[in-house]
Design brief:
By secondary structure, this protein is an alpha/beta fold. 39% of the residues lie in helices and 20% in strands. Helix 1 crosses helix 10 and helix 11 packs across helix 12. It starts with a strand and ends with a helix. It binds 3-isopropylmalic acid (IPM) and magnesium ion (MG). Magnesium ion (MG) binds next to helix 9.
Amino acid sequence: MNFKIVTIPGDGIGPEIVREAQKVLEKVATVYGHKFCFEKVLMGGCSIDAYGEPLTDETIETCKSADAVLMGSIGGKVGQSSWYELPPEKRPEAGLLKLRKSLGLFCNLRPAHLYPELKKACPLRESIADQGFDVMMVRELTGGLYFGTRKTEVVDGEEVATDTLVYHDYEIRRIAEKAFEIASKRQCHVTSVDKANVLDSSRLWRKIVTEVGKAHPDIALDHALVDSTAMQLVRNPGQFDVVVTENMFGDILSDEMAEIAGSLGMLPSASLREDSFGLYEPSGGSAPDIAGLNVANPLATILSAAMLLRYSFNLSKEADAVEAAVAETLTAGLRTADIMEDGVSGLTRLSTSEMGDQVAARIR
Ligand code: IPM
Ligand code: MG
């Protein structure tokens, strides 16, 4: 089949990790007889340098013309990069938020699963890591604090900053529907996370999710507070199947989930809407400290490419092949620096490009 993939390498380690994911997709195309046509665009800091803004209208149109978008990471170091001297709406992150909103990508999936091979890289106590976990975070991506009005002003001689957290019932309903649909193909258990003991937006969240849950009697539904969930994730992550939550809570909890899964370099993500179009990116950031050194872990981006094959192209056999190739690579003891385990023999440290080569070579 023929598909068009727009790539957004972005900043920091982005170009290195996207290059490896593209390498793996090209191997998939060869082995399975598909034609993937790639077009590269700029977003984030590199777009500011080239065009004076983090995301141009032309880039949005190019993304819209694709079947799927594969992204690396954007942004630099606050305080060190001149990008952060610009007004907030001109900074790299604003480009990503605008792209998510312009493309209507309200549903962000972040699967965190502990590979048995990475148990030693998991910072949790051995007795917890031994039990393993497989959590699907369903993060609402186009509402909440990220998109409410904000301002900084001087009131009576004091500086005051305000951000607003707004949720409409339909925004909660559609993400809850997605969570139940996904749970029906997994362990049939949804945990909805909120802060309903304090926030109105969370009380509405809980009410709507409960309503949606009534239409899915075969799926178990729990409600949990976000602070307690942060604690339970390190105490007993195996209790979770699908976790659905609002934008900001999802941002925070997904970094925690990535860390307990061994590394931020292991967590892929898919940002979806109702049709098959999607944007795929690792959950981690641009890691400016190690950019250009060929040491970053490309596996989260490669696993994001597997999600792209599954969700946007409906190529599940090919997606399985990529995921199996990643698992085999880990079983063979091959590791990038972030997932090297102290005191474990039989491991070989690889560069970013060597890791991409090894995964590509295992696509069958
Ligand atoms: C993420 C990132 C982004 C977010 C940043 C870069 C704006 O942290 O995708 O988790 O907060 O959504
Ligand atoms: Mg984040």
